Amino acid sequence: MSADIVSLLDLKTLQLEKESFIEENLKEQFSDIIYQIQLAGKDAYVYALLEHKSSPDRFTTLQLLQRL
Q: Which residue from 13, 18, 16, 15 is spatially nearest to 42, judged by alpha carbons?
């Protein structure tokens, strides 16, 4: 993360949210985490989407690159 962006974040305000955007039928394979933080004095959200793998997959890196 760029030092310019980090300097705009108020890390003391970082808090885990209880919301989730994953549909019930996908919760076995996916999970998400949402944080709220102040960015330049305004509310901002950090969203991470996680995919569960039941076994090693040599193509995982390629799958991630497709989503960029």
A: 13
Q: What is the pTM of this model?
A: 0.63
Higher-scoring residue by pLDDT: 30, 8: 8
Strand 9-16 relative to strand 42-51: parallel, antiparallel, unpaired?
Answer: unpaired
Our CA dihedral for 57, 60, 63, 68, rounded to 10 degrees, sits at 170
What is the CA 12 to chain-centroid distance, rounded? 19
CA distances from 33 to 45, 51, 59, 62 (A): 10, 12, 24, 23
pLDDT of residue 45: 92
H runs (alpha helix) in the chain: 3-8, 60-66
